[in-house]
Input
Amino acid sequence: MNAELPFPVSVEIKGITKAATFTRLADALAAIRASLARLPLDADQAGYLAELFSETAIPRIAHQLVEFGAVRAMAYIGIESVHPIQLCVTDSE
Output
């Protein structure tokens, strides 16, 4: 599958970043990785999320966006701070 999508993608980490729209999936994932790198995540959580949103994951994420319209994950900071991570298809209008 071609990793470039025919639609923009909106990304947000609730409580951490505002929603932003990207025309290229690679740019959207780079923004997520940059935001996650600044969070005080434990090593396991940081490693899991880095792999989940890595450059090698672009084909998988593109497929999920085409099929389901969204990709979601959670970032846990400590035991009480939960931040949903969302990538979703955005209308190109």
Remarks:
- The mean pLDDT is 90.
- The beta strands are 9-13, 20-22, 70-77, 81-89.
- The first strand starts at residue 9 and ends at 13.
- The chain has one domain: 9-89.
